[in-house]
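INFO batch 0412 | record 1 of 1 | parsing
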Amino acid sequence: MDTPYPAREEIDFHRTRLTRYLDRWVASALPQPSGAAYMHTETVGAVVDRLARYSVLAHTALNRDTQQPHIHYAWQQLAELSLGYGDLSFELTAGTRRLPNFVVLQSDNRA
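INFO prediction complete | emitting tokens
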């Protein structure tokens, strides 16, 4: 990426804060999963963060002098992740999938 380091540091701080906020909200809003629910490897906040990243990469590939295979690959990654997010959402609400508990306590002022 072309973002200068101090700006990237600021962006990463806010991304982490928003990811944790989203994870806390999801943890409080989801129904309790069944005892046999499979564990997902990431939190919803991490998946949404990756969706945002892939969206930027795919749109950037369109706006730059990028070779067609790279554009296709970027958009394919975004499409597959968005389908996976839809599946994850369905499984979480059905109680057949559970999330790792990476929720930071509300009193943590850093994020």
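INFO post-check: Helices lie at 5-29, 44-63, 68-94.
INFO record closed
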